[in-house]
Design a protein that fits this description.
This protein is an all-alpha fold and about 220 residues long. The chain has 10 helices and no strands. The termini are far apart.
Length: about 220
């Protein structure tokens, strides 16, 4: 039964992940983000193309669909599987990210899953949210590369989960060793997927041609 629960968590997450905030917002406003900027259905492209307000809306929408997915899983399985619920959170978030990145109704071409991952960080609690926010703010504030900040917090998320899991800190205290290892593996797979989805960004970062992003449009740079 427990393996079926894992699959159900992924499927629930995938269904929530299909809520493509950028696509829906674009349809309401009369444009398709696929034909704008980088063509990616994500926060950064919306921010660059349509401004800060639209970018924040997409960020919040894509983040909270992960929060709501985890809430749904908690209502269904929270009491029965409270000892491994952090693992179920990760499976649910993985489903959300898969649904966001590979929505079937859009030809499996969605975003890159960073805002959805922010939702995972939120449901993991303030001990994750605060350091991740600080790290992203520092990296982005210094470099103005959203991709670099995003990949950095992905690496720190993995490191923090492993460190806190090995310490048996807080929500991880009741988890068995096999469940912890399984959680590490799933998060590592999400990290790998994020780097694969950002392979073009990584190439541009290495060549010095990655586009910088500023929060004020007049400072936008193509460098």
């Amino acid at each position: 039964m427990i393996y079926a629960v894992r699959l159900i968590c992924v499927l629930i997450g995938y269904c929530f992940g299909l809520f493509q905030t950028a696509y829906i917002y674009g349809r309401i406003k009369g444009f398709d983000l696929k034909n704008t900027g980088s063509g990616n259905y994500g926060t950064t492209n919306m921010l660059r193309s349509k401004g800060l307000k639209a970018g924040l809306l997409v960020l919040l929408g894509d983040s909270f669909k992960c929060v709501f997915a985890v809430l749904a899983v908690w209502l269904i399985f929270g009491k029965s599987y409270s000892d491994i619920f952090p693992l179920l959170k990760v499976y649910t978030a993985a489903g959300v990210i898969l649904g966001h990145n590979f929505p079937f109704y859009m030809g499996f071409r969605g975003g890159k899953g960073i805002a959805a991952t922010a939702g995972l960080i939120m449901v993991m609690g303030w001990t994750f949210m605060i350091p991740e926010l600080i790290i992203f703010a520092l990296v982005f504030g210094i470099s103005h590369y959203v991709s670099l900040g995003s990949l950095t917090i992905y690496l720190w998320l993995f490191a923090q989960i492993v460190i806190m899991g090995e310490m048996g800190y807080g929500q991880f205290a009741s988890m068995t060793r096999p469940a912890l290892i399984e959680m590490y593996v799933v998060v590592l797979l999400l990290v790998i997927m994020a780097f694969v989805k950002h392979r073009e960004n990584i190439s541009r970062l290495l060549s010095g041609t990655e586009r910088k992003t500023y929060l004020t449009k007049k400072k936008e740079s193509d460098s």
